[in-house]
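Reopening closed ticket. The problem is back. First fold of the pair:
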Amino acid sequence: MFHGQRYGLVFVNKRWAILIGGSSDLALETIQGLRGITDMYFFVHCRNPSLRINNLQLDLGERMVLHVADLENEDAVIKMTSIILHICDKPFVYLHFAAPPLEFHRFKDSSTKTFQSAFSVQTLAATILLRSLLPKMKKNADNLSAQVIFVLSEVVSGKPPKGMTEYVVGKYAMLGLMRALSAEFEAAKIYFHAITPGMMETKFLKNVPEIVVESARNRTIGGLESVKSVASKLLKIINDPDKFIEDASYLR
């Protein structure tokens, strides 16, 4: 599903932020932080558009293209990639927020389907999109450095929690993809970053056992992070990528 009926339009000389999984609280907060950049346009993907994201599209008008697609459907991702290439004259920043819902269960109760879902929504979707987008970002990077940012999780740093095998494996796969791309495009003016936030105060906590949420909330260091604080990290990277060049592939 494609909102706005803009298949025939190309927006020339506009910087584009491409947000995959753009209906998340973090993605929406990030858009709010970037909307002050007047030549910044937004291609926002989501699976199930919410009232909040529909209202944001109305507010931003032609500056925001909303596209609905199931990332577990490879053909849908390929089609979305073609639309982005047609519409977005200058892809400036690619942000991947999409992730499967958090589920807690023992490894013996996991299934091939849940592993496939975690891989499809994150690593496979990002691979399909970036395989086509990166050459265009590289071409445009002569005048403006492009950026790729993956939203990972603190599970990829230190000892991961129990009962989240599919989630942890999915995040490590994304980290591997980011590191591989960072190495391959080292000579290009494209920055690759990942942020690894802890548990955030979002709607996804409804799937998390209360004891786990309370444990995160009561931690001496870190605690339960706010969406605004994590969005602030993202915005700092986007606005000043050179500041993080010494640790360009990984940021906490």
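Second fold of the pair, where the issue appears:
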Amino acid sequence: MKNFINYGGFLIITCLLSNLSFAQDATQRQTMDQSTMTDPGQSQRFMNDLNKRNPNTLNQNIEWVDNKDGHYGNYTLDSVIYMTRYDKKGNFQGTYAKKDWNDESVPVSLKTSFDRSTYRGSAVSSYWESTEPNNKTYYMELRNDKGKSSNVWANDRGKFSTTPYSQTTVTPNK
């Protein structure tokens, strides 16, 4: 009986630790519907392309992820978190830097548009700004008052969309 109680306690603790670990991992990922990329060749093509665009990413360990809009990978350079996106066809769509929504560098026009949008009742839990000079778009992860997460994209005119804005394919620097 004592062994049974010890074994039961062990199972409960194992389940609790497993759930805690899963919850932490889930909060470290973006809230986009996603799955880890299963095609190593595609992952390598993205790495090669990104390394040509930004040689500082050569030693980065990037886990590429598939979602309904294409593929993305997150990485950190000089304490800044970046997200690089590719569309479903594998075309480069841009790199975004994670920033603080409350920072004064967030365009006033974007904040004004957000405050007038249907999303105004949600809190911005994560804000990303395009680093591409010819593609000023923004990505935001939102949480409403009921705790439901959603994602929204905005262009430089403050127009919001639930799908990313596309850009013309940009050839990497050789």
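Update: turned out to be a display glitch only; the data is intact. Residues 35-161 form a domain with the Nuclear Transport Factor 2; Chain: A, fold (CATH 3.10.450.360). Residues 60 and 75 are 7 Å apart (CA to CA). Please close again.
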